[in-house]
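User: Structure tokens for both sequences below?

Assistant:
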Amino acid sequence: MVGFRRGRIEVKSRDQLAAMRAAGLVVARALAVVAAAVSPGITTARLDALAADVIGDHGALPSFLGYHGFPATICVSVNDEIVHGIPGPRVIRAGDLVSIDCGAIVDGWHGDAAVSVLVGAAPELQLLSQVTEASLWAGIRAAEAGSRIGDIGAAVEATIVAAAAEHRQPFDIVDGYTGHGIGTAMHMAPDVPNFGEPGRGPKLAVGMAIAIEPMVTLGSADTRVLADDWTVVSTAGSPAAHWEHTVAVTSVGPWVLTAEDGGGLLRGDPLA
């Protein structure tokens, strides 16, 4: 989930980051189960139930359920739905591009991540998802102590712009929806845009945690919100992909709290 945040940037202790890691692993495991279940014939409500089961089985709470009235455990956004899709009776079909956003709380600490899953073979949609995921990892690699928020957005943007030129595809970054700080609340300062200028914005410090989440369309990224007051769709009907991880800034590199392997970017023990 995304929005706009203001206020103090929360800096966590090692013990608090360890608690966030526990929440991040619950999210990772729920997303793995749900992503594996995405197939023709399954409903988005069933995907939601699977995520609820995993989160509950780990003794965690869903971050999304009841958040400003959101009625489900996960967001499931299909094709031209960009973000905040509400699970329900919709049946997944071959050729769909399904974005799944999940959050969980462990001992008061949040984790938040999203993946996109392609149902079947559609090369242009597979490329869209791959480019979006690649831009996420470019942003994650920029999340080093001493860097700035603008460095993350610039890395995300540069990846998408380069891919659009290389593949001659109209990839477009969704404006108005950003990543965010995360910790004792799901959405906190600072905003983490998916574009920006290097060297601009708040400086990243050891102990900060942020959710980086590029949303990219194949075609125009102009948006509107449906009558349910949640689901954000492309006004042009452009398919969209959404990838996200929760990342801790540490003295030994970015620690991807919502990846089972921690992201593979650490140069040592982040809790040492």
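Moving on to the next sequence.
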Amino acid sequence: MVTIFIRTFKRDIAWLDYCLQSIHKNLKGWDEIILCIPENQARHLAHLKGTKIVLSPVFKDDYIGQQVSKLLAYQHAKGDYVLFVDSDLVFLPGADVRDLLREGRPVIGKEQYAQPKYPAVRKWQPVVEKLFGEKPEWEYMGLNTSSRLFHRSTLANFHQRFPDIIEYARRQSKHKFSEFNFLGFFAEKFESNKYCFVDIHREKPPVVKARQFLSWRGITTEIAHELKTLGFEKKWPNTLSWYDLSLKKLDETNRNIKQWIKSLKN
């Protein structure tokens, strides 16, 4: 049994609309969907009748809050496996959760910190070392995918080893926490027989057929057209206040400007 766990927040609900449509239309191999949202934002999912919704604690920095929510997803899931999906991921025809398995084991992509494809990932090495008290050799987010599959028991065992992970997380700054690097390191160190670890510099790990959007870019006219071409229609009743809409638009504009400046430098 496979549980899909999607941690979202109010500014991503429009993306979530398309993600859910794509799961029901195109993705095979799953049994239940759980949506998780901060408890003070629950009203933004009120329109989703019959959908299992769980609430997560409110964090001052929701970037860390959403990471902690994923680590504790086993508390709500019924599945033997938990598939983590981002709100801005749209599955394409032929997508199957089983594509993330090799010989019956979930595949985890990794790369050595000594030779990362993107040097910026080195910032996660001291983060993992701080939690485990051991310097890791490998980084586990180099696969760069927004759908990751783990045994539910791995999440439970991780929490058993770090029962105060919520309190620990509250003490960390934005870039001092990395849920999938924690889980990857934990899985390879203690449960390596349950997973298939792939060095992404030697071979390309399997991925589910999907189109990864970046929510901070916003749903532009071009993206809306692409989504419509893929067979999806906007269904979400806008629940954001004018203030939230303004902040969302400002954030999207700032991020796009930063990306444009970065492209000029390259």
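User: Anything stand out in the second?

Assistant: Residues 96 and 145 are 15 Å apart (CA to CA).
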